[in-house]
Each structure stands twice: as structure tokens, then as C-alpha cells.
Amino acid sequence: MEQRESKFKFFYQTGWIAVATALGGAFMYAVHMVAKDMPKSEYGVFTALLQVLNLMGIPAIGLQSVFAQQAASAVGDAAHQQLVGTVRSVMKGILWIWLVMVGVLVVAQQYVIDSLQVANPAALWMTAVVGLFAMWMPIMSGLLQGQQSFFWYGLVSIAGGFARFLGVVIIVRLLGGWAAGGMTAVLFGLIISLGIGAWQNRACWIGAAQSINWREWLGRVVPLTLGAGATLFMMSADMIFVQKYFDRNETGFYAAAGMIGRALVFFTAPVAAVMFPKIVRQAATGEKSTVLLQALGVTALLGMGAALFCTVLPEFPLRLVYDKTFLKVAPVVPWFVWCVVPLTVANVLVNNLLARKQFKVVPWLILLAGGYALALQWRASTADKTDLIHGFSQVVQMLGLFSLGMVAICLWFSLKNKQNSAADQAR
Predict the structure, then answer these.
(1) String of DSSP letters for 360-394
(2) pTM of the full predicted structure?
């Protein structure tokens, strides 16, 4: 009976997060229905800057996991005061990291503008401003996730997506803004999400606090940051290399196909989000659970179902957002979605390993991400530029190849961890 109730609760919570993420994602998707009215060169820049924003968030990506862990295990006054002190200290630390990043951008501004073919420098600087809020947001999401406050966790996703969409409608469509205007709308959405999260988590950053042990805390957050950052890099890097090496008037087409492929990652992300704190609690209490198998099964089914749909009807998701001129990139859509499917499975496996503090996998994930960067550099620079579909497909195939490599690495360490656990129990 308890097992049935546990499974029901898992699927109920996953279902809500899936609905909330779907609604939030639908608004994010709708952003592109408006943004595609920009000139294609500006739309390519806007999409590339969104991926730059993802990469800017890598220093903070592990924060969601580590705060989810800390919030899930914060039992008692002492642990709660330690959590409050950690939240305050880390938010201040992120501010200093962001200021350093801004300083680097001041020095390298022209190189970045030339590499990303940015026509209006205001778009780049707005992205830099957004970066601060993007690095703070994982703290609030992690606190909600760790406390298993999944209602508000989902609501933050919906509110942020709606606010971003509303901002794009006002700034881009009504006021005629382009890439810089689109990034201003992104900032608006993040401010709304961060505000809701901060209010709901106010007990975690207001009140009595203990000082943070930076050495101990960094020992936990650095592996989580690098492990989760490797997955985020795999999801985001291709658009930046395409923006650099392909004609700026053509990159908008790749952005359209990529947006559909990346939507699959966000579509399946709720499963890993619900699974993570449960694995943390399971590891802490030593209880057995089938949460990982459930998460893998749901992720694989959703991913392959979406991929099959996009294979049979590749133009359909494009027609939902874009005009007819974008339909010429439809042959790339099945490639993109199938190459992303193994990345969604790898995301679940990475979250499982990190939740169990199996950090030996992290160096291998970093090596894989580094190899992917080198492969993208080579492939994007040498890809066929005369046949756009062939050239884009060549870049996407690198994503599929290295995503499979990530799955293989995670499976190896997952099986090894299971064997070690079985051996410990036998002793």
C-alpha cells in the first residue's frame, strides 16, 4: 500500500510539474512566435544570446542541486540557521562573480560582438544584466525543490514564462524592439520568477543565520556545478558556434530547428526535478525506491514519442511558431530531436549520480564536454555552407554522438555504483 501511495505521489507531483513546465514552456515557445518577426539576422542573434545566457549560468547551475540537497536535509534550528546563512552568503558571492564577468566583457566586448555578429551592443549588455538574475534564480528554485514545494516550483515556471511572453509582445511587437528588446523581455520574466521564489522562500533567507563554511560548502557545490554544467553546455553550445561560423542571415533557420529540439529537454526536465530530492532523501535514509527506473521510463517514452511525432510531421512544430519561410529547415528537425533524446536520458542519470554524491563521474563529463566543444569548433567551421540543410545536419550530428557518449558514461558509473552498494550490503 505504501509503495502504491509513493508511486502515485511521484506521478502526481511529476504530472503537476510537467503541466506547469508545459505551460511555462508554451509561453516560452510563444515568445518565438513573436520574436520570429524580427529580421532573421536579429532572430539568430537573439537565440544565440539566449544560449550565451545559459552558459553564463553554468557557475550557478549546481546551486539548484546543492540548495535542494541542503533544504531537503535542513531538520532542526541549527541546520535551518546554517541554510539561511548559506543563502545570504552565496547570493553575495554570485554578485561578485557577476561583476568579474562584466569586467571581462568590457575588455572583450568587440571580440564577442564580432563573433556573435551582434549589430546592436545594447543586446549584449542587456544579456549581461539578465545574467545576474539568471545566476540567482537556481537558489530559489533549489529551495522550493528541496522543500518539495512543487506547487510553487511549478508556478514560478508558469509566471516566468508568461511574463517573458508578455514582455516580448509589448517590446518587440508593439514597440518594434529587436534582439535587445527580446533580452529586456527575458529580464522581465526572470524578475517575476525571482520575486515569487524569494517571497515563498523568505524563511530561508530572513532571520537568524550561521556563518557558512566555504571550504565544506564548495566541496559540495563545485562537483554539482561541473556535473550539471556539462549537460547544460551540451544543450547550448551548438547555437553559439553556428552563429559564429554561418551566415548571420541564415542562422535564424538553425535557431528555429534548435528551439524545437531544445524544447524536448525542457519537456522532460520535470521528471528529473521531482526525482532529485527523493533520491537525496532515499540516500540519506537508506530506503529502497524505484524512483530512478520510473524517471528513466517516463523520460524515454516522452522523448521517443516526441521524436517519432517530429519525424512523421517535421513541419508541424515549425508551423505552430514560424511563417512559411522557415519550413525549408524542416528536414533538420528530426535530426535535432533524435539527437536530443539521449541527452534527456543522460540528464536523468546525471541527476541520479549527483543526488547520491557519486562525483567520480564529474571529470569524465567535463572531458566529454571539452571534446564536444572541439568537435563543434571543427564541424561548424568546416560544415557545408553551400547546402544549408546538410551543413546544419552535420553540426547536429555532433550533438547526437556526444549525447550518446554521455549516456554511456553515466550508465557505466550507475552500474558501478549499484554493484558497490550490493557489495556493501553483502558485508
Answers:
(1) GGHHHHHHHHHHHHHHHHHHHHHS-SSSHHHHHHH
(2) 0.70
